[in-house]
Amino acid sequence: METVKVSKGRHFLKKGDRLKGLFVILQGNVRVITENDEFRMNAGSIVGLPESLSDSYVCEYVAETDCMLYAFPYRTVEDYKKIFAEDEKYVAVFAMGAVHQADMMIRRYDTFYRKAREFHRFLSESFGDYQKLCGALGMPKKQVAGLNTLAPVDIKEPIQAWVGAYYERMSALPLAALDQQLARDYVIGTGAISNAVFWMKKSMEQVGVIKSYLRERKDLLLSGTPENLFRMYFELAKKAAYTGADISPVQQRIAELIEFARKIGFYPEQLLRAQLTEYENYDFTVTAQAESGSQEEEEIAEPYEEGIDYLTEILEYSGWQEEKAQSFRASLQEYKNLPDMLATTDDVRRLRRKITDDFYAIYELCFFHSLKGDYMPTSVKMFLNFGFMDEELAGRENTRSLFEAAGHMRRCKAGNVYTIYEWLLSIYRGENEPSRNEFDMDYTGYLNEQKKTGKITAAQVPVLAKDNQEKLKFEMQNMFVSTNRATYGKISTFCPILYKDDIIGSVDHMLITAEKANEALDEIRKIDFSLFYREVGFSDPEHEVNMEMIQKEVIPYIILMPNAGSKAMMWQETAGIKKDTQARFIFPILTVTDVGELMVEVCGRFRWEMCRKIQGVRWNDITEASLTSEYNDYIQYYRKNHDLSADAKEKVKNALYKSKNNYREVFVKDYQSWIRYESKGSFRLNKVSRDIIFRYCPFNKAIRTELKVNPMYREMFEKYEILKDRKARHMLLWYDRYQKKGGTITEELQVNKDFYDL
């Protein structure tokens, strides 16, 4: 036996290490870390007991404080005889330590088993009540697979109550009584210890199973995604309020759900606060006005009928003045009668311009009518989502397909994916701020400009700044009009009314669903893992963290324009001055172009523009290293670059010519090659561009590991790993200090750690 001192924070025993001894804690606390659990051992506990029946340590042991321990050499059960031979009182000491630890672990098992059963019961009952309330209120039931198949935790051999009661009674005995009971007998003492170790290990294993069960299912109750019971109840309350129904039963269940989430203790306070704040701040009294036109209310696919006068239905729904409606009909008929609808003569251009202006006027009227809550014909849904207005123009078969698609628009919606109609609704509701216009001016800047030119007064500015209807008009007249034309792809012949020649193949194949869009986005994120991560500040003065920079992933909005187009746009890299707001990517809702290719191109432009935003006026200043400054310098002086061969220089020259000397577009083409080819080990870039892009758009860990065998990448990767490891060590060090001061690793801090793991 010897006395061992262990300094605070030291991992003095590691998982997998060969068993070398048992340690009695005299002073301090030790944290035990297993695969699915962690807990604290206090003075009097014996470190290594769970492993005493095996040959290696199965836990990590970390000193929470400065510790002092008695170390006893130990490899097998036979070594107890040697320990007890030193002093017979050790028989009772070790047995008491084992009994106390078994009691503690069984109590932990009981606690988590009870929580798991309580969680299952509450979730099952709440989901059943949700379905009943949907039926009573006449609302569609949202289905979440995990809730439909939810089963209780499966413990093959639960620890029986008598075991817990036994160790509870044994641990309450004084040491002298246990000493007397064991009679300082080596064999009896070893048996008592081994039995306690058996139940200790069994409890630890069961706790691991239970915690794994809870970890995999806790998001079903509450999470930051839409697929959870809280969100289902919240959406039900919104929809029921719209109909004028009594939502108090729904609100009562929401209150119970939040109370349970707090009590169960699985959820970060930050998440609870965010979800509860959103719910409490929601004004259900205006739901009828704001939500009535949303296709989220009830997606009922009407049966297709022949002979519908779609244009009449749309115009009547809009409520446009009869005279203007007749004029529009005449213009549209003239357009259909043209021998060449794609002509670029002045008279055809004027006709397209008039039709375009009328289209957006009708769109605005239909949108505002949809807010009244009246029945919305499928023809109007086709118009609002696809730009459809006329069966002859769209083609009969296409019309039928569009009719069916309009009855299932949920496919085109997700947390970050909007149809243009849903996006405009979000502006009207105040959920999102309007986009910048084509002059890169936001709504506030626009109002200030209007004031400067005398079009509005200073007193009107704060009023208009809060007017969601005016914000909506700004969005429609600027972002919507500009991007609808640009994403169509053929700007000179653009007409916003859907035309059959633009529909190539089936509508279903061309439709960009939320799944297609996010799959394309995720494929790029798997390669360029840091694409949407931004550095933001984290502080917690209470736990002595004044300011640390952490990585936050901000997934962009994807907005689908009502056209059959061939282009996508990165409209803006952030929503405002804050760099941790969502970018806005614009896509056509129908396209024959590969969505993945469009997404790579858009992400390339996002990389460039995001860097420009962060760097500000110094975006091309080579003295301040950044993606844009280094790439600008590389392109500007490529002729003098000794690292480029003559062939490489010629390729840069051709790239500049094709991009009309636009450095950003040269980068975008290189970025496409980086994602599509270089990530697979197929060389397409020159040495200089490869080096720059890798430093600012590095591959994820798996790809780096695979490509590291190639000498072309090895040096770059090694330099990157050194830099990354340095940052990761700094992160782990301050995380450790933070936790020791009582701080908690929140969801945002875990995201930051995950970033470095990639």
Would you write up a description of this structure?
- This protein has a four-stranded antiparallel sheet with strand order 1-8-3-6.
- Strand 4 (30-33) and strand 5 (38-41) form a beta hairpin.
- The two termini are 45 Å apart.
- Helix 2 (90-137) runs parallel beside helix 6 and helix 14 packs across helix 16 (396-406).
- Among the domains are: 1-76, Jelly Rolls, CATH 2.60.120; 219-285.
- The chain has 30 helices and 14 strands.
- By secondary structure, it is α+β, with helices and mostly antiparallel strands.
- The chain is 55% helix and 10% strand.
- The radius of gyration is 33 Å and the shape is globular.
Gist?
With 758 residues, this protein is an alpha+beta fold. Strands 1-8-3-6 form a four-stranded antiparallel β-sheet. It has a four-stranded antiparallel β-sheet with strand order 2-7-4-5, with no helix packed on it. A four-stranded mixed β-sheet has the order 9-12-14-13.
Main attributes?
single chain; 758 residues; alpha+beta; Jelly Rolls; 4-stranded antiparallel beta sheet; 30 helices; 14 strands; 55% helix; 10% strand; globular
Question: Could you please say which CATH topology of the domain at 1-76 applies here?
Answer: Jelly Rolls
Give the overall shape, derived from the CA principal axes. globular
Main sheet characteristics: 4 strands, antiparallel
Radius of gyration equals 33 Å
Structural class estimated from helices and strands = alpha+beta
Quaternary structure state of the chains depicted:
single chain
Strand content: 5-15%
The helix fraction, in percent, is 40-55%
| Number of helical segments with 4 or more residues | 30
**Total number of strands:** 14
The residue-averaged pLDDT reads 89
How far apart the termini lie comes to: 45 Å
Strand order of the largest sheet: 1-8-3-6
CATH architecture of the domain at 1-76: Sandwich
Would you identify the CATH H-level superfamily of the domain at 1-76? Jelly Rolls
- Which CATH top level class of the domain at 1-76 fits? Mainly Beta
Give the low-confidence spans.
Answer: 287-298
